[in-house]
């Protein structure tokens, strides 16, 4: 296996482990971009999704907005905004947030909307205020689906954050883009492996978060 | 205005040619994904124990970044269209399998029993009853797969000019002509929306039995 040899060579070269272009620094940059983008996307997607899901209104508008946002090519958007606004963090954040908002928004809306109406009505009958109905009844029941939306958003962010390197920022994409230009295949494959491992780690983290946060009564179904 | 459509000669293609190339690189993988997903989904419906492991494997495959996927494939398929199309086919497969399985499973037992009672064999029952009823879920999956495929083709520009319209982005930077990047983004977005609309139209054609206009609403609750 050719690729495995490259992976082995990349990770066993100690020069790749420290300094400005070292793995820890690039990994940290990548995680920073990803967390910032996920935080921004969640700050937009979660409240809007919870509110529209709770009232059950605006589904068509949301579906339309999500389709429009999905249609925008992340890579194209990145290059375009980088040309327009210069090479800083903003051109990376805009495409990543545009990429991540639709899955969060649409899944949250669908999750809250499709909660069994019987317990929701029971909660209202017990005199709960609307905010308590949302946060103490609908949210816990909808949590597994909401987490799945956040998970797919996070994975897409982690894999797409590689393109930040194309507009001269850091992150793990640095290895892939530089390696392709330098025809240093070892570096390219090493970078690709790191991104894939980070994406799989994200998957595992969300699985663990689901085990921890979802109430056992909801999980059993 | 002419600057927007004045494609640099090193791309060796016209604007219309790039659109054709982009559609081919994006849609063939979706088609391949669909052809693979249909039998796989049917297996998952028939043998229930198969579905969780298949779902696990596809989720992991979906987590592999497109750029990483492209790069690893270069070793086997070179810097060609195929290198871009294989990952896109895998992503389509990953989106389509759960969509089809959920759609086919949502067919009510009574309907299946009625079809069997009318003398439908398993193959005819699948083709004429289960598949048509699963069309809304199937098309929903196809829409996500198609739109993301069209968007992802552009990333192919990073592995040696295999990005069709995405190549305009590289050209925009190389020749300092931002209008080419605008052209690329707008054309790609319009292509995605047009394909999405075509799929919605296809669904309306295939499901004349579905209620039109306002889709399923949650039953009104007493406030």
From TrEMBL, chain A:
Segments forming domain ABC transmembrane type-1: 27-206
Pfam families linked: BPD_transp_1 (PF00528)
Transmembrane segment boundaries: 31-50, 62-87, 157-177, 189-209
Membrane disposition: Multi-pass membrane protein
GO BP, sorted A to Z: glycine betaine transport; transmembrane transport
Keywords (A to Z) from UniProt: Membrane, Transmembrane, Transmembrane helix, Transport
Gene3D superfamilies: MetI-like
Keyword Transmembrane appears in the UniProt entry: yes
GO cellular component, as recorded: plasma membrane
Cellular compartment(s): Cell membrane; Membrane
Record-stated family: Belongs to the binding-protein-dependent transport system permease family.
Protein name per UniProt: ABC transporter permease
Organism: Streptomyces fumanus
High-level lineage: Bacteria, Bacillati, Actinomycetota, Actinomycetes, Kitasatosporales
From TrEMBL, chain B:
Top-level division of the source organism's lineage: Bacteria
Membrane topology label: Multi-pass membrane protein
CDD domains to which the protein is assigned, alphabetical: TM_PBP2
Ranges annotated as spanning the membrane: 26-47, 54-76, 82-101, 133-160, 180-202
Location(s), subcellular: Cell membrane; Membrane
Keyword rRNA processing among record annotations: no
Main location: membrane
Biological processes annotated in GO: glycine betaine transport; transmembrane transport
ABC transmembrane type-1 domain location: 19-201
UniProt keywords, alphabetically: Membrane, Transmembrane, Transmembrane helix, Transport
A single Gene Ontology CC term: plasma membrane
Protein family: Belongs to the binding-protein-dependent transport system permease family.
Name of the featured protein: ABC transporter permease
Originating species: Streptomyces fumanus
């Amino acid at each position: 296996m050719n690729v495995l040899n490259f992976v082995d060579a990349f990770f066993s070269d100690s020069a790749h482990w420290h300094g400005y272009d070292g793995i820890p620094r690039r990994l940290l940059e990548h995680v920073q971009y990803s967390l910032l983008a996920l935080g921004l996307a969640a700050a937009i997607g979660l409240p809007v999704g919870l509110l529209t899901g709770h009232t059950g209104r605006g589904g068509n508008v949301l579906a339309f907005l999500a389709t429009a946002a999905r249609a925008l090519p992340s890579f194209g958007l990145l290059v375009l905004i980088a040309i327009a606004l210069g090479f800083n963090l903003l051109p990376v954040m805009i495409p990543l947030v545009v990429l991540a908002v639709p899955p969060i928004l649409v899944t949250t809306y669908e999750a809250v909307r499709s909660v069994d109406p019987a317990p929701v009505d029971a909660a209202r009958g017990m005199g709960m205020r609307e905010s308590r109905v949302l946060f103490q009844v609908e949210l816990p029941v909808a949590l597994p689906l909401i987490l799945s939306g956040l998970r797919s958003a996070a994975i897409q962010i982690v894999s797409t954050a590689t393109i930040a390197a194309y507009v001269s920022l850091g992150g793990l994409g640095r290895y892939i883009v530089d390696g392709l230009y330098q025809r240093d295949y070892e570096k390219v494959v090493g970078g690709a492996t790191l991104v894939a491992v980070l994406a799989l780690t994200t998957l595992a983290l969300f699985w663990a978060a689901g085990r921890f946060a979802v109430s056992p009564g909801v999980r059993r179904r | 205005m002419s600057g927007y459509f004045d494609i640099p000669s090193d791309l060796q293609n016209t604007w219309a040619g790039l659109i054709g190339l982009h559609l081919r690189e994006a849609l063939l993988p979706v088609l391949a994904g669909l052809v693979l997903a249909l039998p796989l989904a049917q297996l998952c419906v028939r043998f229930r124990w198969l579905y969780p492991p298949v779902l696990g494997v596809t989720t992991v495959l979906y987590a592999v970044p497109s750029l990483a996927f492209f790069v690893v494939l270069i070793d086997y398929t070179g810097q060609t269209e195929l290198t871009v199309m294989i990952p896109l086919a895998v992503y389509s497969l990953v989106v389509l399998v759960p969509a089809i399985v959920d759609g086919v499973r949502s067919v009510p037992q009574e309907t299946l029993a009625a079809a069997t009672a009318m003398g439908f064999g398993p193959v005819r029952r699948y083709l004429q009853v289960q598949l048509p009823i699963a069309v809304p879920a199937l098309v929903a999956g196809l829409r996500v797969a198609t739109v993301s495929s069209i968007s992802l083709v552009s990333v192919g520009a990073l592995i040696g000019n295999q990005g069709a319209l995405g190549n305009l982005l590289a050209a925009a930077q190389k020749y300092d002509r931002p209008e080419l990047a605008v052209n690329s983004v707008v054309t790609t977005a319009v292509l995605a929306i047009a394909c999405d609309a075509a799929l919605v139209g296809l669904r309306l054609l295939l499901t004349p039995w579905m209620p039109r206009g306002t889709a399923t609403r949650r039953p009104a609750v007493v406030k």
